[in-house]
Amino acid sequence: MMAIHPSHVPVINEVFSPGPDELARCAELIAAVEAAQREGTGAVAFRGEMVDEAMAATAGLVLERHEALVRWAEELPPSAP
Question: What percent of the chain has pLDDT over 90?
């Protein structure tokens, strides 16, 4: 995404960042795949669809990027009024 002014960045981040439901889904998907791996299963049914390790890795990236964005936002100086 391109921004014309730095003040647009928070809006862009908000629009393109995963919401709480998506973050929870990613965490649950990872937990389901990890549980299946402990049982020796390569794929597992999760919310009506088959998921595997590759999908769990993608979900992990979503969570990592979200955490990085949250850390970055906490480090920003307060915006001017």
Answer: 57
